[in-house]
Amino acid sequence: MPARFGDILQAFEFADVSGGMEGCRAFVCRQTGKIYYQFEDDDLQELKDDELPDDIENETKYLPVPNSHGLDLGKPLVLAFVREHLPSDLDQVRFIFSKRGAYENFKTLLSRRRAIDDWHDYRNQATERALRDWCKLHSIEITD
Known about the structure:
By secondary structure, this protein is of the alpha+beta class. Helix content is about 50%, strand content about 10%. The protein folds into 2 domains: about 60 residues, no CATH class; about 60 residues, no CATH class. It is built from 6 helices and 5 strands. The strands form 2 sheets. Strands 3-2-4 form a 3-stranded antiparallel β-sheet, covered by helices on one side. A hairpin with a 5-residue loop joins strand 2 and strand 3. Helix 3 packs across helix 6. The longest helix has 22 residues. The protein is elongated and about 50 Å long. The two termini are about 15 Å apart.
């Protein structure tokens, strides 16, 4: 099935921001490549142009778009970035990620090291690679 990468990326970002909450998800139609958004709030769903198909939960027809966790872009990605860009901070980052509030503390460290832009570039490139791999795995033909 063909799909535009920008549409897949937007669906991923929606799924990621909602944290995969039940009811706030995105799906790709396996036959057409069309993206559907499912909102937790029914009132918001009604504002969308497209009605959700009644069988949206049928994974033979509709593929749920993963979030960061589903693509393994969480802590392992952070540690890979730190190994490459801030190796002297690796132990500190491991400690940060052993506690609650890890991402906020990690961003504080990035700010102190003036590495926020490097992190965003690294994360964006990794996200694109992971999404393209996910599309290939699920036979989604990417059109750019």
